């Protein structure tokens, strides 16, 4: 069963470009994973510090594998200094 996620990240103003580059790296690496069906990154037009991922994963085990990748763990460690808030993650169903 496919897993749909929307993830919202808010950068500290002084870190917008640094975070944007880190997020682009995540896209590059994540889209190479077999279970990754969609991994789209968006930036708010109204607030450039807000980034949104729209993700689709093949199944729960694929998502768990993704979350256990070294580069994901490294990103979340680094992001503690870049983000203004904790990321918001919505797990959704397509309707």
Alpha-carbon distance between the two ends: 14 Å
Uncertain spans = none
Structural category: alpha+beta
What is the global morphology?
Answer: globular
Helix proportion range? 25-40%
Main-sheet strand order equals 2-3-1-4
Q: Summarize the helix and strand pattern as letters.
A: EHEEHHE
pLDDT average, as an integer?
Answer: 97
Percent strand:
25-35%
Biggest sheet details: 4 strands, antiparallel
Could you tell me the radius of gyration in angstroms?
A: 13 Å
Number of helices: 3
Number of strands: 4
How does this model look, in words?
- By secondary structure, the protein is an alpha+beta fold.
- 38% of the residues lie in helices and 31% in strands.
- The protein contains 3 helices and 4 strands, in the order βαββααβ.
- It has helices spanning 16-30, 60-67, 70-82, and strands at residues 3-10, 36-43, 50-57, 88-92.
- A 4-stranded antiparallel β-sheet has the order 2-3-1-4, with helices on one face.
- Helix 1 runs antiparallel to helix 3.
- The longest helix has 15 residues, at 16-30.
- The relative contact order is 0.30.
- The model has no long low-confidence stretch (mean pLDDT 97).
């Amino acid at each position: 069963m496919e897993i749909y996620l929307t993830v919202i990240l808010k950068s500290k103003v002084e870190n917008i470009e640094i975070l944007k580059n880190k997020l682009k790296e995540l896209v590059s690496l994540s889209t190479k994973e077999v279970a990754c069906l969609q991994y789209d990154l968006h930036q708010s037009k109204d607030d450039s510090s807000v980034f949104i991922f729209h993700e689709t994963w093949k199944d729960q085990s694929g998502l768990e594998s993704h979350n256990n990748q070294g580069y994901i763990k490294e990103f979340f460690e680094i992001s503690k200094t870049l983000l203004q808030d904790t990321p918001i993650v919505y797990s959704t169903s397509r309707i």
